[in-house]
Amino acid sequence: MDKILVTGGLGFIGSHTVVELQNEGYDVVIIDDLSNSSEKVLDGITAITGKTPIFEKLDLKEKDKVEQFFAKHNDIKGVIHFAASKAVGESVKEPLLYYENNISTLVYILKELKKLPSAGFIFSSSCTVYGQADELPITENAPVKLAESPYGNTKQIGEEIISDTCKVTPNLKAIALRYFNPVGAHESVEIGELPIGVPQNLVPFITQTGIGLRQELSVFGDDYPTPDGTCIRDYIHVVDLAKAHVIALGRLLQNKNKSNYETFNLGTGKGSSVLEVVKSFEKVSGKKLNYKIVGRREGDIISAYADTEKANKELGWKTKLSLDDAMRSAWKWEQKVRGEN
Ligand SMILES: NC(=O)c1ccc[n+]([C@@H]2O[C@H](COP(=O)([O-])OP(=O)(O)OC[C@H]3O[C@@H](n4cnc5c(N)ncnc54)[C@H](O)[C@@H]3O)[C@@H](O)[C@H]2O)c1
Hints:
Helix content: 25-40%
CATH architecture of the largest domain: 3-Layer(aba) Sandwich
Number of helices: 11
Number of strands: 13
Bound molecules: nicotinamide-adenine-dinucleotide
Structural class: alpha/beta
CATH topology of the largest domain: Rossmann fold
Distance between the termini: 37 Å
Number of domains: 2
Strand content: 15-25%
Radius of gyration: 19 Å
CATH class of the largest domain: Alpha Beta
Mean pLDDT: 97
Order of helices and strands: EHEHEHEHHEHEEHEEEHEEHEHH
Low-confidence stretches: none
Shape: globular
């Protein structure tokens, strides 16, 4: 079976994708520098799939090491590139760190892929490229707006770099997957999201508040023009998201792609408000969540959810899991991580 490199494969979305790739019989090699993950994640992957992927601890910013890696693994057929820094707030404070880590690593990998007789490349992009879209749900044709942060800009520039490279590299086929809001954990709770420090995202903040690690959740604004006044996002279960990567990769490896650079939205198509997510947590956990409404947070988009038609029709992929499923698994995971289950 084809050998696939998964960069950032010990991270949140990467680890769930490695599981799905191994379940489909792919040989997986992971590169990760452990800057936002732990080697213990390998045990979780092994516990679920019965197979330990090859792991190379490597910082993709080190160009020579990347070259050596590809010289050693010259039979790689595809790359799923998750490795990146992802904290929006930190990117505003440390833009160069983000441009270096998210852009140079991409360039070094593409340079190596150009040398291969043929290669498929999947890029982790984000719905952040759309900013506050003029129309909802958001289709892939919605204009890319001026980035709101250096992090968001790295995703826009990343897409442009890949598109430009594909235009002049017939042996390279690529898909940029624009994720909406990935949440949840594997149902086995062997793997899940492991935020370092104070979580930047809503769901880990909710589960950490539920378990008592945080005192209360601040809900930023309840006076937005939405049904309950809180912001709306499209929360997609990480296992559904992981499965989409395997399908997108298969599309490239089986030459089913329509052009050698494509983009797809990955979301559920359904928007949920912050208060709906809180309610879902309370329902599946049986716990009352301590939260308070505070003022709006600067830079927050009011509402974003995906038009999933292109992914449904072209990839033949649909989400199967609900917000409640995601909250249930996220809560089970939180309890396991804190040793309460
Ligand atoms: N989680 C989200 O909400 C979300 C939304 C949209 C897009 N994305 C993108 O999806 C990808 C994966 O996100 P995630 O949530 O799994 O993040 P994560 O931080 O859990 O995973 C990223 C992994 O990459 C590794 N890494 C970072 N820099 C590296 C380097 N220079 N060399 C080698 N390894 C490196 C980290 O150690 C980590 O294990 C990222 O590109 C992110 O920008 C995430």
